Amino acid sequence: MLRVKIHIAISAIGAVLGLSAFICFCLVYANIEAGMWALLSGTNASLALMLHCHYLKESLHVNFSRKALQYIGDFGIVGFVSGLALTMFYLFLEIYYKADVLPIKTSIMIRLVWSFMMMKWGLMLYLTTKKYLRTYNDHQLFSENPHIEETETLIQRDGQPTGQDEGESTWTV
Hints:
Blueprint: H1 2-28, H2 32-56, H3 60-63, H4 66-97, H5 108-133, H6 148-154
């Protein structure tokens, strides 16, 4: 569990820095591209933070189906691929034009750094979802009901109705 707590701390730092850089670069320095990459980086870090926290509280299987985790992983891989493409593009521009870091409004280097961070957090989010998908049990592979344990205890062997409230009768097989 110490490893998960370390991942939580790192993801929280990434989320806070991404949001802070978004506010800083968009509002203060007017470098909209760097601010957007920082926001997407912070979003990927926030999703990773959310997954780590749910795993630590042992509520990951209750709140997320396998399909939901796969969608979150797909979002991470899109962030990784687009961050990789942007990093290579900004690296080319930096080498070709030999631009300075200042002025910050037109700095290619800052865009390069935040596109790299978006690539890194996209990959980390994808790897996190793959790791947590492996923790799902076989009986949850084919079930869309996250409360599979509760439904198994409600089933009665003799085929009598499980619910005895007024107007409610559910038959089990």
